[in-house]
């Protein structure tokens, strides 16, 4: 998914649900780096992905590149 986002293949993507995919901290960091390629994204569900603190921090830092993002679900990510 990160490669697809980074390539700009889905510029009209508004909702991304990756709940329960075990992407981990590295996956969350990679996803955070690609958020700027999805300017219309308004909702992201990353619950139950074992993201951890580093991944959450990377996602928080990327929020500025996602101005329309209104909902970021990170429940159960120890």
Task: Explain what you see.
The protein has helices at 2-6, 24-34, 52-62; strands at residues 15-17, 43-45, 71-73. It starts with a helix and ends in a 5-residue tail after the last strand. It is built from 3 helices and 3 strands. The protein has a 3-stranded parallel sheet with strand order 1-2-3, with no helix packed on it.
Oligomer: single chain
Structural class, judged by helices and strands? Answer: alpha/beta
Radius of gyration: 11 Å
Order the strands across the largest sheet as they lie in space.
1-2-3
Overall strand count: 3
Strand residue percentage: 5-15%
Amino-to-carboxy terminus distance: 22 Å
Helix/strand order: HEHEHE
Main sheet characteristics: 3 strands, parallel
Q: How many helices does DSSP assign?
A: 3
In short, what is this structure?
35% of the residues lie in helices and 12% in strands. By secondary structure, it is of the alpha/beta class.
Secondary structure layout:
Blueprint: H1 2-6, E1 15-17, H2 24-34, E2 43-45, H3 52-62, E3 71-73
Parallel strand pairs: 1-2, 2-3
Helix pairs in contact: 2-3
Give descriptors for this structure.
3 helices; 78 residues; 35% helix; alpha/beta; three-stranded parallel beta sheet
